[in-house]
Write a structure and sequence with these properties.
Layout (H helix, E strand, L loop, with lengths): L2 E5 L7 H13 L6 E4 L2 H10 L5 E3 L6 H4 L5 E5 L6 H10 L3 E3 L21 E6 L8 H6 L9 E2 L9 H7 L3 E2 L4 H7 E6 L2 H9 L5 E3 L10 H5 L4 E2 L4 H13 L13 H22 L3
């Protein structure tokens, strides 16, 4: 019997889902989970950057039965991918089934972000993990570099790195992501999940909307009172952020999700299976 954790993703989207699912993997290490992503590149990213030891790409959620065995357990973050009929089949197929968004809240943050550190940066910017439309690149164009560091996104075009180096005083590679998010007092971001990670670290994020893609779980920003701005270029964003910082609102504290009950249920099921599996394997 095995625990699987699934996150909807693609070759240029969905890494917020993967970050959330990876946080669950790290919180359930004692259950030895396997992370399943819809794209193999996302699984590779999770193993390289998010501390995941076991990760595989399965293309679509409908392929889960091809890697799972009947009776396995599943936590899934499908973002609407699974139909009601498919979810009924999943309930019948799995010994334990948990859905992110109902059984588990969307604001699941990796415990590492609750480890408080001192701020090294007054401001920094992490747009998102992807910019396949080059929206952020156009958003930033300037003749004078911005006095703010940028954290590189995973699905940014490699050929654009030199261009971003012209626009920012420092461009941090993605392996600096955790440190910069934790150590930046006022983080500018267009990622809801990253804003929540910043909040978890005791910092004060500022969210700006992207024009080319709908943001997931945007209602969480209002829930925690994270300020949101809509601007057309980087210069406007920096000007607006100054105004917000001067009268920064009181944020609602985010609580670390208590996984203990779910962990206990999964562990109990795994131990029970260990006791009965020898009889199931017995050959008459």
């Amino acid at each position: 019997m095995q625990l699987y954790i699934y996150a909807k993703s693609g070759h240029n989207f969905g890494l917020e889902n993967v970050r959330r699912a990876s946080a669950l993997c790290n919180m359930l290490q004692s259950c030895d989970p396997i992370l399943c992503t819809a794209d193999y590149r996302a699984a590779t990213f999770a193993k390289q950057e998010l501390g995941i030891s076991k990760g595989i790409g399965i293309d679509i959620i409908g392929n889960l039965p091809n890697v799972m065995q009947r009776g396995d357990m599943l936590i899934y973050d499908d973002s609407g991918e699974a139909s009601s009929t498919m979810q009924d089949h999943m309930k019948e197929f799995c010994t334990k089934l948990y859905k992110v968004g109902s059984d588990i809240p969307y604001e699941v943050i990796d415990p590492i972000f609750f480890e408080k550190t001192e701020s090294k940066y007054q401001q920094a910017i992490f747009f998102a993990d992807d910019d396949y439309d080059n929206w952020f690149l156009d958003f930033c164009k300037t003749d004078t570099p911005y006095n703010i560091p940028l954290v590189w996104g995973h699905y940014f075009f490699l050929g654009n790195e030199d261009k971003f180096n012209q626009y920012f005083t420092t461009v941090f590679e993605e392996d600096s992501y955790v440190d910069i998010i934790k150590e930046t007092k006022y983080l500018l971001t267009s990622s809801v999940h990253t804003a929540l990670e910043s909040l978890s670290s005791g910092n004060k994020p500022i969210f700006f909307k992207r024009a080319t893609k709908e943001n997931q779980n945007i209602d969480l920003l209002e829930k925690y009172n994270i300020p949101v701005v809509e601007v057309s270029n980087m210069a406007e964003l920096l000007e607006k952020s100054k105004e917000i910082i001067e009268k920064y609102p009181t944020l609602k504290e985010i609580q670390q999700f208590d996984i203990k009950q779910i962990e206990a249920e999964i562990s109990k099921t795994l131990k029970l299976f260990e006791k009965i599996s020898p009889s199931l394997d017995y050959k008459y």
